Amino acid sequence: MPKTVWLRKMLGYTKEWLKERFTLSQNLEIELSIRSMRRWWQVKTGKVDTPIDGEIPFWFVSLGFHLVVIIFLARIMMPEESVKAVSLTIDEAVDQVVEEDIPMEIQFDELITDQIGADGDDGFETAAAQAPIIDPISEDTIDLEMQLRDVADIVTDNDFIEATAESMAIVPVKGSVGNSVKAASGAVDRMTQEILMSMQERETIVVWMFDQSASLMEQREEIVQRFDRIYDELGILQAAGHASFENKKQPLLTQVYAFGSEIKPLLKNPTPSLTTIKEAIKSIERDSTGIENVMETVVVAAKDHASYRRIDKTTGKPKNNVMLIIVSDESGDDKNQVNDAIRICNQHQMPVYVIGVPAPFGRTNTEVKWVDPDPEFDQSTQWALVSQGPESIMPERLRLDSTGTFGDLNMIDSGFGPFHLTRLSYETGGIYFAVHPNRNTNRRVKKWETKSYSASLQHFFDPKVMRRYKPDYVTNQTYLARLKASESRSALVRAATFTTTGTLESPVLRFEKLNEATFVAAVSAAQQTAAIVEPQINRLYEMLKVGEESRPDEVSLRWQAGFDLAIGRAIAAKVRASSYNAMLALIKTKLKFDPPGNKKTPQNNTWVLVPADVVETGSQDTKLLQKANNYLNRVIEDHPGTPWALLAQRELETPIGWKWEQDYTAPPQPRKAVPNNNNNNNNNAEPRIPQPRMNAVPKTKRPPPKL
Asked: Of 495, 497, 473, 477, which Cα lies nearest the Cα of 485?
């Protein structure tokens, strides 16, 4: 048979096979194929990101397969001499390849929770009026490696597993993060698809793990109601002869755990009975301790079901799939066990899915709305602090006050879940679902709109945008190594971790010159306040300035946005403080009031300091003002639709510089003497309005429980 005819036949067979394959497989088959390709790539290369990540159309897979077949057939058809020549060229090239060191993946540790000033929980207005003077930053030398020692201590030698054939065989496909839904039911619907794909491969055990906190009671009920739909869909598919049910005695079994300070399996053995499953979930009691040992629960559940992952001697593959599903609205109290949880889940290839909450941007605690469920008690809204963050191990957002109105930016969505739980799902090939009923990316969500048992997050962001800004879900050592390799990253983490400072907290802006002594005293007092804050801000700027040189080399969008916002805000704070002090000196020594325009107009006697887009205190401040504007505008232009852009925009809404304006303040009038008639004349007194008698006893107000 001529080679050209044979080649044409082979291509025709390939085309027909592909057509039949993609027609028959539907969505589930295609996704399984893509997962297999992704897994093969990660095992062979050791890299997380693959060429088929993202929303790649399936025609691309077909195109790639065609190209491989064509190249393979073309090489068969080539003359022997050409094949030899190519082989020699490849061998020579391979001898010259130098293997690059691929940095290991790392993790961050718990974020410092101190919050002050405008970044505190009460908003800028309260902070500016009540915040005390902050102690200056310690002058001790900051050693990044020493400060991160606590982070590295929780990592064991087992994090560095030898790259044997056996260990490489269990490298998991990385999971999905940045998935946001408005209700737990939406996450459960998505989980139904995951369960079906798992069942199509082999019989599956689904292990549900519910935390026992009071704040999760409503969500548990919502999920129980959704279970009917899950099993209804499975029943319909089974009746229709779906491939997931072929040759399987019990294609789906379910186990339920409850966890708080203790861990309780609620079923003796995994069961297919929907009634038994629902009764088990409804029987979960509230744990009033407020402790959530979520990582320990994962370890226990994985060990309890490891036997289901034993290899079938006849097929050489595991007998069952095991999926672990966590339902929790906190970050957990045993984060230091995350490496153990990841290790055992990867060892047995058990993906972990989390139906959780969004982490606040750069914050550990959020305010969760609570209304007493018992109508016999006070029904007014109360707010309880709950640990639902942060989204990264180390802080990457400055705790810095602002002269602007940042009250609604204290608690904003980070776009991701709490770091350790999200990393657990990501590293094991699962999915993290961030659930918040007030999710709205089109407008600000006011605090009073917050649903009960939900955190007050007033700004949300498009998940499609935020997925490009995911935190580094890596091990501690890798994170430390990446910081050491980048001055801009280490500078940002230093500044965000070790600085607790404010700017001009409610600065005095109006100075009345009714008499010289009082005027000078008021100006001097304002200068003293600025003199306390200014050295702290200068230190903060110097810490970030170290990273400017390496900033152009940064390729991560998250780190680019984080550094530019931090140094832009630090420079803006520096200019505001230094120019404020200099402007006060001007009115004490040089500036004079303008003469009145006419005889009827009184002489101005008050200086008013107002924000301006220019500074009048020298070229140095002018250059810094321009520099701050450049950094902040770059954040807005390069990272639209992100928390960093929102913060930069708010920073620029209040001009960075200052200018003086003049005003007139009427002198205080002497008090008029009012005769008291020895308190005998009450004819002109207002009549007393009788107060209504209190018939109802006010209801008792109970404090929020540990949510």
From this structure: 477
